[in-house]
Amino acid sequence: MTSHTRSPLLRLRPLLLAAALALAAVTGCGTASAPGSEPAAERSSSAEPAPDRAELEARAAAAQLVTDHVWVTEAAGYALARQSVGVLGDDGFGSSYTAPDGGLLQLSVERRPHAVADCTGAAAPADGEKPLVTCERDGEHWYRATESDHAYAREQDGLVITVSGAREKVDRATLRSAARAAHRADGHELDRVLPPAGGGSGQQPVERGDLPPVGDGAPDNEVGASG
């Protein structure tokens, strides 16, 4: 389990690689419609029948996700990068939203103590953490920022929901808007966010085909070995 006192800005770092790959896919090949890329009114007025809940639960379980921990958000110009969807910590959820101009929003949902602890307990940053420039209440959220990153966090039903981004890429107004729009995914949104049946999380390990069955597990780099 991740440390309760570490900054949410750092807890989201494991998602950066998947997000960067997702951004490359978005800018290079276009982006399919996903939560965050269409107006909320359009989603809520959809006449499509709700997806089968048992199927959604099975897809979530296959990706090691808890459906109640899957949240979505939206921000003007941003779309969900489905390649970034994955487990965060033990049973949390993480995803990224990208914009054509290189903007990147990261959404995380974690079961941990109240977000207020991120401010009141952050006077002395842990090793490797950047000192806070500010940490303040903003409506029902807590806003915290370092020189390079910033985030909005709030607590609901025992979960802390955080939306973060780099300050040079995402301005505070956009970050606030995305944080306020964040909500637990409904059936239609789960269907769009979860990996398809038979698929898996974008953060599952890649299986190598060149590892020998015996020995110290070093890769076999001989000619003809598969990569």
TrEMBL record:
Protein name: Membrane lipoprotein
Location of region: Disordered: 32-53, 180-227
Entry keyword annotation includes Signal: yes
UniProt biased composition (Basic and acidic residues): 183-192
Signal peptide from the UniProt entry: 1-24
Keywords: Signal
Record has Secreted as a keyword: no
Comp. bias (Low complexity): 32-49
